[in-house]
Design brief:
By secondary structure, the protein is of the alpha/beta class. It folds into two domains: about 120 residues, 2,3-Dihydroxybiphenyl 1,2-Dioxygenase, domain 1 (Roll); about 160 residues, 2,3-Dihydroxybiphenyl 1,2-Dioxygenase, domain 1 (Roll). The strands form two sheets. A nine-stranded mixed sheet has the order 14-15-16-13-9-12-11-10-17. Strands 2-3-4-1-5-8-7-6 form an eight-stranded mixed sheet, with helices on one face. A hairpin with a 7-residue loop joins strand 6 and strand 7. The longest helix has 13 residues. It is globular, with a radius of gyration of 18 Å. The two termini are about 35 Å apart. Keywords: Metal-binding. Pfam families: Glyoxalase. It comes from Nonomuraea bangladeshensis. This is VOC family protein. InterPro entries: Glyas_Bleomycin-R_OHBP_Dase, Glyas_Fos-R_dOase_dom, MMCE/EMCE_epimerase, VOC_core.
Length: about 300
């Protein structure tokens, strides 16, 4: 098993131009719960997750990924990671210290190779959560985050070298070459994936539902609410997880998923899948075809916050 100090994905923080409209979507349609709210700032929890929140919304003129946050096992591990990154010339946004966000904890922030702000934290208080019951079509947890990168090979190398991410699988196209890399920090097939894109931006954030029935019920609920569906429902080959992709009011792609594969890290060997084969994109054959329209919608707007730390 790889030697790594990061344990899991905590949350993704988004700056959006219309906080009220986004909040109505994520609470009234998507199924998240507002736990901590201030003017233009909301922390949204998943009912089944011990994390204090899985999405943070901040109102801003600049649409951006404010932050991608990962957990570490201890304060000592946080200090070790911060020291290693600084010695390697990675630009720290904050030094390790006590966090002022819900749940407290101890952490620090830094810029990745393309300027996204990343946080590593430990000792965050566990949120009181519950088991999601049969038939409840609300998110259990934040499953993974996928980012678009103008330099995906460099971005993959950054996360492998500095944070000990491991490659699970790769998607390629006969004409375009390698296009997406699925990266893990634990036994889940991926917590982060990197897509080749025209600019750095959010590709999508994915939320795990309880099971297949809940996943389909959730997909149907979002469709009935009139939310624009981009792709799905279907089941990917890489990761073996289900997918339904929708656009939130700010044009960010959000996914419902379930049954993401867990791996034996000691024996796993990465595959290279040709996604021009329909069964790679969707094993079931139930989703609309992956085409240029679908791909372009997931390019998203260029991230306007690169190498600029969020104010909160």
């Amino acid at each position: 098993m790889p030697d790594r100090l990061i344990t899991h994905l905590r949350h993704v923080d988004l700056a959006v131009p219309d906080h009220a409209k986004q909040l109505a979507f994520y609470t009234g349609v998507w199924g998240l719960k507002p736990e901590h709210t201030d003017i233009g700032l909301t922390f949204l929890a998943a009912e089944g997750s011990p994390e204090q929140y899985v999405v943070r919304l901040r109102e801003s003129d600049d649409k951006r990924i404010d932050l991608i946050a990962f957990g570490a096992a201890s304060r000592a591990d946080v200090d070790t990671l911060a020291g290693d990154l600084a010695r390697d010339g990675v630009r720290l946004v904050t030094e390790p210290g006590d966090l002022r966000t819900p749940g407290g904890g101890y952490g620090f922030r830094f810029f990745d190779n393309e300027g996204r702000t990343v946080e590593i934290s430990a000792d965050v208080a566990v949120r009181e959560h519950r088991t999601i019951e049969e038939g409840e079509s609300i998110p259990v947890r934040l499953s993974h985050v996928v980012i678009n990168s103008a330099d995906p090979e460099g971005t993959r190398a950054f996360y492998e070298r500095h944070l000990s991410f491991a490659l699970s699988d790769t998607l390629m196209h006969p004409r375009m070459g390698e296009m997406m890399w699925f990266m893990r920090i634990n036994a889940w097939h991926h917590s982060l994936a990197i897509a080749r894109g025209p600019h750095p931006s959010l590709h999508h954030a994915s939320f795990e539902l309880r099971g297949l029935d809940e996943y389909m019920r959730g997909t149907g609920r979002v469709l009935r609410a009139g939310v624009e569906k981009i792709w799905g429902p279907g089941r990917h080959l890489a990761g073996n997880n289900t997918f339904s992709y929708f656009l939130d009011p700010s044009g960010n792609t959000m996914e419902y998923t379930t049954e993401l594969e867990t791996l034996d890290e000691d024996t796993w060997h990465p595959h290279v899948y040709d996604f021009s084969k329909p069964e790679v994109s969707d094993q079931w054959g139930t989703a609309n075809a992956m085409n240029e329209f679908v791909a372009q919608r997931s390019f998203n707007d260029p991230d306007r916050g690169l190498f600029v730390a969020p104010p909160v």
